[in-house]
Amino acid sequence: MGWVEEVHQDILDAVHELKDGFLEFASRMIQVDTSNPPGDYSVIVPLVEEELRRFGLPTEVVSVPAEAAEALGFDRPRSNVIARLPGRRIRPCLVLNPHLDTVPVGDPSGWRYPPLSGVIAEGKLWGRGACDCKGRLASFALAMAAIKRAGIELNGSLVLAVTADEEVGGELGTGWLVEHGLLEADWAIMEGFINVIFRGCGGMLGLRILFHGESAHTSTPWLGVSAIEKAARGIGALQALQAELEAELSDIPEFRHSTINIGTIRGGTKDSVVPSRCEVSLDARLMPGHSPQLILERIRDKLEALAREDVHFRYELHPTRMEEPYLTPVDSPVISAIQRGVQAVRGEALPVCVSRGGSDAKYFIRRGVPAVSFGPGLKPDSMHHGTNEHIEVSDFLDASVVTALAAIDLLGIA
Ligand SMILES: [Zn+2]
């Protein structure tokens, strides 16, 4: 009999013993509004501390100095909660990393149950944050508490880092803890889904393109240069580049290819004036192998070709965001540990993909710490960030068991 079979039943029993308390914990967290912005942690942090302590998990609050929060434009304090399940040794160390904040509720009228109710009905937990990330937070905490309840002493240490601001970039949450050496780890499991493992993220390029013209009265347009007409030609060039990118397929399952979305266009002052200025902004999501610098150069090449044909074609490029792709190797032990857990609980293997959106995994991966996403969300059915966000109670329980098994696998039994 392998180790999985040996501990599986004990973990299963412990999870079922503790489950009502942790579902209640998730529900209580959903009732506290932590939409970000503004991200108010004054009520949720004491609640999380109280609940984790109730289940025998000692906590420590790491508050970010007010000056650091103010420097990033936040008008209220930023705090993180860390709970540790110490093993015989400090290393190896696995960090479980859910977050406290949510996206705003949005229009509540389409919700089946009020978004801040945290209702458990129809076998599901409902509300803003039910999936992203309060249900996941409770599921990770349950995994940790179940290991303790089952009387399993780990060889290495298991850390639950409940962080601020994931929904706005995570600088003062996971970023702060990692940069300040408070989360020295060998692996991290970030909040995620039960039907796919994400092992990182493609790159991003945010770009503002300013097209210049010369204003003139509409009655004599030949005296001016229309910036909007130049921008239209520039957009045509961006579309040509998009067509090229669509033919450069990624070998990563489901990533498809790099994309350019032209998100905004602003130009002109009045119908009777030839516009002197037009600004276009875009968001490009890049497959591994396409660095933001490379795509920026390809955009410049296309626009330069237009400028060579037309002396009045004048533009400026202002990058607003340049993020390199970040990836955990596909053969990392943290991926195989989760796969073994999923195999034990559900008899299946999960697809391993690369996300097209950002995550706090970047703070770990950039420091050489393998980080992947897993948890009780169901992609796309859980509607995270959407109306009627929810998780299945059965997924909540299965994800807790898988997380506990993966932690035991990685850290070993003392
Ligand atoms: Zn999240």
Main features:
414 residues, 2 domains, alpha/beta, Alpha-Beta Plaits, 16 strands, Aminopeptidase
Task: Give a brief description.
The protein has ten helices and 16 strands. With 414 residues, it is α/β, with parallel strands linked by helices. A six-stranded mixed β-sheet has the order 1-2-6-3-7-15. Strands 10-11-9-12 form a four-stranded antiparallel β-sheet, with helices on one face.
- The rough form would be described as elongated
CATH fold descriptor of the largest domain: Aminopeptidase
User: Which percent band covers the strand fraction?
Assistant: 15-25%
Q: What CATH architecture of the largest domain would you give?
A: 3-Layer(aba) Sandwich
SS field, number of helical segments: 10
- Listing every helix as H and every strand as E from the N terminus to the C terminus, the arrangement reads HHEHEEEEHEHEEEHEEHEEHEHEEH
Strand order of the largest sheet: 1-2-6-3-7-15
The molecules bound to the chains, other than polymers, are: zinc ion
> Largest sheet, if any?
6 strands, mixed
How many structural domains can be distinguished in the coordinates?
2
